[in-house]
Amino acid sequence: LLGVPGVANVAVWGDRDRQLQVQIDPERLRASGVTQSQIIQSTGNALWISPLTFLEASHPGAGGWIDGPNQRLEIRHVLPISGPEDLAKVMVEGASLRLGDVADVVEGHPPLIGDAVLADGPGLLLVVEKLPSANTLQVTRGVEAALAELRPGLPGVELDAAVFRSASFIEMAFANLTKALVVAAVLAILILGALLHDWRALAISLIVIPLALVAATALVGLAGGTLNTMVLAGMVIALGVVVDDAVLGVDAILRRLRRRRAEGTDESGIRSIIEAVVGSRGPMLYATLILLLAVVPVFLMEGLAGAFFRPLALSYALGLLASLTVAVTVTPVLGLLLLRSA
Question: What CA–CA distance (Å, rounded) separates 282 from 150?
């Protein structure tokens, strides 16, 4: 699992490493005339290597190797003590007794600092921790693919990757957001169609509004931001201005072209569209500047409040700028292509 891209650590809970234990009883030691130090020395020196530096077994000899014609084979000593019954037969140093005569030799595990208790009994709980910059969905899918590869080699072991799956929340949020966007798009089509009374103006509005939002999202990414709740909140607040810019721009162009046709003037379509854009965008430019100045104090806030609200203000400001840019560039071009004969 550590080989999956984006995984930083895998913490294992409930793992019981096999361990041979010599559980001493002070009463039995006193009755046998054996000390605890003798038990420790006898047990440690019976192994090939011991972590206790004062024992002989803490300085094992080299295993060595055997050189063949085309390879080198390392020598690995196989410990003759494989179970508690073997360790129980070891003689106590300085006494004519075995370890099993003065202590209980059993197979156990080190003391647990935590455990994994499942619904039907004990088990193993693997907590997969990802790197901060890693994509949660990609890491989750990589971990699930790795578990699927491990499954054939673990017969009788039931693997459940859905105990705590943070990607499920993200997938559910995307599904809910998709439904909300679909409903919002349908309502926008109905409302704009009822207000504009022209399918070409409706088409321009439905192109300009998403384009402004996509441009604002791209600007947030270029500014080093990420798509989070506060950024989305700023986009939602700016959405009102985006819709207003789109509807007013298209309506101004449509009215100007219809008035030119009704008056029978020789003004060209391009000239009419430019005049409509200049006439409607002048006041909106000042309004946009006022809205941008209103959020400047948020960027000057310090501490936790500043860190919390700054992404919202940034996405809101970038949404206003993207809406204004699209309104003075894309909207006139689409109006020239679709509304010239209106």
Answer: 65
62 or 96: which carries more pLDDT confidence?
Answer: 96
Query: In angstroms, what CA-CA distances link 309 with 221, 273, 303?
Result: 17, 39, 10
**Tokens, residue 174:** 């995307």
**pTM of whole model > 0.85?**
no
Instruction: Name which residue leads in pLDDT, 24 or 250.
Output: 24
Q: Is the pLDDT higher at 218 or at 341?
A: 218
Evaluated on CA atoms 255, 261, 267, 269, the torsion sign reads positive
Q: Sign of torsion, CA 279 280 281 286?
A: positive
Phi, psi angles (nearest 5°) of residue 55: -105, 155
Neighbours of 123 (CB within 10 A): 16
> Which phi and psi (to 5°) does residue 140 adopt?
-60, -45
The helix/strand/coil state of 1 is: coil
Say which residue the tokens 């047990």 belong to.
Answer: 43
Is pLDDT at 342 greater than 60 in this prediction?
Answer: no
